[in-house]
Amino acid sequence: MFVAVISLAVMGALFGIILGIAGKKFAVENDPRVDKIIEIMPGANCGACGLAGCAVFAEAVVAGEVNPKLCTPGGAGLYEKIAAIMGTDAESYEERKVARLLCQGGVEQCRVLFDYKGVEDCHLALASFKGPKSCNYGCVRMGNCSRACPFGAIQMGADGLPVVDCYICTGCNKCVVECPQQTLKLIGVSHSVVVHCLNSDKGKDARLICSTACIKCKICEKNCPENAVHVEDFGSGTLAVIDYEKCTDCGICAAKCPTRAIQKNDSISEAVLLKIGKPKDEEPACQSCGLCKTV
Q1: Full-model pTM
Q2: Fold (topology level) of 32-92
């Protein structure tokens, strides 16, 4: 009995020494930058970056496999901190993008052909004579994008159109994928000037069905000091298109547009809340994005 105990003790000690030596010899050193980045991450594990959690994202950033700005809930504060850890320039990271609605055909702006009584679903509504609206290019106004948004960043406004709160939007792209009309597009958050129309028909035809349609008058093109907006081929016709590489967000084209098809948007949450009929003092509910942890 005593010999057996001694033998087991000796074997245990021997295996322990072998494992200790093997552990040191084959140990994989962790990059300390990974732990530092994990500490400053939002911790939401929302998956907006396309990876399985903040820890995996931090490892990918250090490995140079992903851009830090894929973490859209993090915001500029996080990018600057990551840049400091990585020894890079935060300005070199791609800008955070948010969803913008490319349509203003609300209940008062765009004519309705018939009273739709079916299930409130954009895809099903379009299956009924291409939808109840006279415009075949605009938002169907059935709220699929709002229901698809995992962060509650899209609410349906009083005019029937979705309203995006750019402070909550993470740019996850789910609303863009869900929209059958492709009336939602991810645009850099700093770009507030947007063409809110996708109607490529001739100007007079577009204006007949929607009061805020782009009429291809080229006034925006003629007045842009940066040569950033042009009426060019789009779909089956033409449309005013903004080149955001050149656009300085001056808003001159928006001010000159006779139909207000181009507008300089207000991304402030308070203004967005007013648009969807909520009082000023009502704050948006926590979306668990973790943004507050990075401020």
Answers
A1: 0.64
A2: 3-methyladenine DNA Glycosylase II; Chain A, domain 3 (1.10.15)
